[in-house]
User: What shape does this take?
Amino acid sequence: MNHIYKRLSRLLSVKSLVTLLLTVVFAVLALAGRIAQDFMTVYAVIIAFYFGTQSQKVQDAMERTEEE
Assistant: This one.
């Protein structure tokens, strides 16, 4: 149960909230067929940054466990 609370608290970080909100806006605009190129560029950069940092955290954790 403690693991669930930790994951939920990470989800509520500012970076995650911004990413989730931006994804909701993207979905609404996509359904309306009104996605501007500038928005698409900004969305792609933010999503790439978010998943890049998440991937780096996982890789760092794996390297630490291998060293131990």
About this structure: The first helix runs from residue 2 to 11. The two ends are 26 Å apart (CA to CA).
